[in-house]
Amino acid sequence: MRIVVVGGGVGGLTAAHRLGGEGHEVLLLEGSAELGGKIRRRRVAGVEVDVGAEAMVNRRPEGVGLAAHLGLDVVHPTTASSRIWTRGALRPLPRTLLGAPLDGDGLVASGVLSPEGAQRALAEVVAPVEGDPSVGDLVAARFGDEVTDRLVEPMLGGVYAGRAREISARAAAPALLALAERGSILQQAAALPVDARPVFAGLEGGMGGLVAALAAGAFEVRTGAQVRTVARRGEGFEVTWAATSEEGPRPHERTTADAVVVATPAAPTARLLADLAPDAAAELRAVDHASMAVITLAFALDDVPRLAETDASGFLVPPVDGRRIKASTFSFAKWGWVRAAGAAEGVLHLRTSLGRVGEETALQASDDELVARSLADLREAVGLEAAPVDTHVQRWGGGLPQYRPGHVDRVARVRAAVAPVPGLVVCGAAYDGVGVAAVIGSAERAAAELAP
Ligand SMILES: Cc1cc2nc3c(=O)[nH]c(=O)nc-3n(C[C@H](O)[C@H](O)[C@H](O)COP(=O)(O)OP(=O)(O)OC[C@H]3O[C@@H](n4cnc5c(N)ncnc54)[C@H](O)[C@@H]3O)c2cc1C
User: Fold this and answer.
1) Cα 147 to averaged position of ligand 1 atoms, centre (Å)
2) Cα distance between residue 236 and residue 2, in whole Å
3) What is the position in ligand 1's atom list of the atom closest to the CA of 227?
4) Using N-to-C axis directions, what is the helix angle for 436-450 and 10-21, rounded to 10°?
């Protein structure tokens, strides 16, 4: 079968790798100049570090399974633990499920909540769950608004760059929803089996290694190939794209295929499917996106001796605290390979992130300004006074889809609208989870649908 894959993020690459490996003739078309999408590495102070996704969930099989299949060395974060910067101090992160408390004593001891907030949280209100509530509303109804504001918000701010009261519990927190449907979350928490496996996995040298390994698969790649149309031609498809190369734009190019995998974000997918599957396009057009920026900072080791000793892997920041950044990851403390590579250059790396859905105007600032905001918050949070020796600002416009209440049903409607077009499949972050592992899972399912 001749197959065109549109989009060279981890979704498209996974589908192309698998289908090419099965002997199909695969052409992957990527609109930008490089493969990887939201997985990207850049050199900061002499070290290639991730400036997009930096980890994948370890407790589901797709990501680590693919890495093992590709012969990549999976590594896990160190035992350094994350903090919450709230109520004027860095506080330990209590045991939670996406912010919903699982340990009352730990919650109180953490000091994340005010005494009144903690008291309300311990008096969990158990009530039936109706429909598809937002994660924030579900948790606030059980444990009070403060738990949503100070715990759920920073968690979802990191994963979705979203707002807790606008993100579907069914799509983003099915395990939490299942607990809530069975009764008291706090009471069940004590009996939850302890999973000894690390929560996250990464790759020695960064997640960018996954892109490089996938790209070495048995398929043809064109970068600078912005796909414009996917149209039905007889039993198959005609795909056209605008090509750009180092010499500049070239006239539209076209090819035919027996099957097409559309692995682009919701908005371009909606444009590509407008004629082929108009109902799917309409659903995808309604998916909102959040923009964010990741700021990587490298400091001379000699300038930050105290920070170098930290046992924290970084911290999250609830929006209610009114800070500029929403999180900081002390990459040198979280990843052994980042610490070692930095030490060889006499530096340590950390990163901050800014931007939640609806905060686009806050990102309309110069790179220098975003760095300055990061440094101002770091100074207050951890007393970091030194100036960085190198910085990198990566903007991710519309980087993360927002799974609003009703998302699971929306995705079912998209799939129902795509299914009648034989040879057409979709995959990527818009559907069954935004994380790298979930996207890999959606790509593997799409590939299996085409070539069972
Ligand atoms: C800043 C940031 C940090 C993240 N951190 C993590 C993390 O630590 N762990 C985790 O699990 N997840 C993380 N995520 C989420 C995860 O990285 C993404 O959801 C996932 O990588 C998306 O993969 P994808 O293939 O669906 O889409 P993308 O990576 O968006 O790839 C889609 C590709 O399609 C191309 N394209 C678009 N339109 C066209 C067209 N018309 N023609 C041809 N090509 C086109 C784009 O250029 C892009 O390369 C993060 C996301 C962001 C933004």
Assistant:
1) 30
2) 10
3) 42
4) 40
Task: Look at residues 438, 30, 42 and name the one whose alpha carbon lies nearest to residue 207.
Answer: 42
Q: Give me the architecture of the 2-35+212-287+403-450 domain, per CATH.
A: 3-Layer(bba) Sandwich (3.50)
Mutate to test the pocket of ligand 1, among 62, 264, 370 (most ligand atoms within 8 A of CB): 264
Domain residue ranges of the chain, discontinuous segments joined by +: 2-35+212-287+403-450, 93-186, 289-401
N-terminal to C-terminal alpha carbon distance within the chain: 12
- Amino acid of residue 367: D
pLDDT in tens, 9-29: 999 999 999 999 999 999 999
Q: What is the 244 CA–ligand 1 centroid distance (Å)?
A: 21
360-368 CB contacts, 8 Å cutoff, 24+ apart: 360/291, 362/324, 363/291, 363/292, 363/293, 363/395, 367/391, 367/393
For residue 198, CA distances in Å to 71, 75, 206, 289, 312 come to 20, 10, 17, 29, 16
Note the pLDDT tens digit of each residue in 269-303.
Answer: 999 999 999 999 999 999 999 999 999 999 999 99
Q: Which residue in the block uniquely carries the two structure tokens 């818009």? A: 430
